[in-house]
Amino acid sequence: MRSLVVSRTPARFATARLLSRFAVERAVESGPLTLRDGPPKQPPNSDWRRAVPILSGICGSDLATIFFEASRYFDPMTSFPFTPGHEVVVELPEDPGVRFVLEPALTCSVRGTPPCNACASGNTQLCSNTTFGDLAEGIQTGFCSSTGGGWSTEFLAHKDTLHRLPAEYTLEESVMIEPFACAIHAALRPARRSGSLAIVGAGTVGLSILAAAKALGCYSSITVAAKHPIQRELARQLGADAVIDPSELARRARSAAKANRAGSYLGGGFDSTIDAVGSAGSLESAILSTAPGGEVVAAGMPATTHLDLAPLWHREINLKGSYAYGTEVLGPEIATRLNQPQSIRTFSLAIALAKSANIGALVTHKFRLSEYVEAISKARAGGKEDAVKVVFDMRKVKHDG
Questions:
Q1: Nearest Cα residue to 390 out of 375, 370, 371, 400
Q2: 224 — phi, psi (to 5°)?
Q3: Does some domain include residue 20?
Q4: CA–CA dist 389, 379 (Å, integer)
Q5: Tell me, what's the pLDDT at 257?
Q6: 76 or 263, which is more confident
Q7: Both 157 and 189 in a single domain?
Q8: pLDDT per residue as tens digits for the range 242-270
Q9: SS3 of 346, please?
């Protein structure tokens, strides 16, 4: 079995973080990630399957880990050494020719523990047992030493985490279903789903949220703040009502709401704003551009940030997190429009909407596993190098030598 492995090596983490500021490829080469050959993982019980990846995505959380930029909050919920990769479309050796998408959350049912309160209510994204049960610590496949991950020729998947895909789905659509499920959850987080929405950031997270909001039929208008030309073009293709530079967000909010202004204070703004970046600047911009009494959803994975929360307090803006997926409550209007039940698992909804949402268009680059330095560097550069979703094409591993 060939796999990329992250080891707990403090010196390599520190080197990767330092070099990432000016020499990304050297940072990858000198960092905690290495390509190895080794024996396959052994399943803990008969509920587990050997999964063979076809495409496996590179996520922002993967990059944050490799470059030592993730919040230390996650350290106790990660076990080393681990193989990254949680955005995966796979085949099973016993079911050739059939494709499955992985739902990577390692929740109570997967870990073999009694359901916690969150899992019992269907809110599996809030599972409290991510360090217990049959597996080592890990909130998802791709951050757990017991399961392996999608950046490999094989890993372990619990039978309940494998969703069979319609035959007509392309590989690009299939590998985007996991981030699309995250996006659907984020798009449904605001309580007011019929007002104006702004999305700050147009990488994979922001564009997936745009695709989700359009597929759900939510919001009277959607404005996307996109920095790079490829992001702006894709935002227009996916149906944004307005595509602007991030520096124009507050001005657009003021204009759309016909709001008064005093310095950075706005008397109006967007009804809801979703931050798809997770930086201090993007969160601050989202808060300042949201109407008093509105909502800001943090969907991009944040690290440690320093924010001026005075406008959040003064204008009574609600700040919400949006992590992963669970069970969605659509409400009668959306459920009727989509011909879906009012209460539905996010992954089921993502699979149902993936084809019409055109999420496969976000896959811009494919690399062999042996080309991981170039692949991760491309993903790190993102829109600056015309990249959105970068994936490993595991069908090419046999040509790696």
A1: 375
A2: -120, 125
A3: yes
A4: 7
A5: 83
A6: 76
A7: no
A8: 999 999 999 999 888 887 888 878 789 99
A9: helix
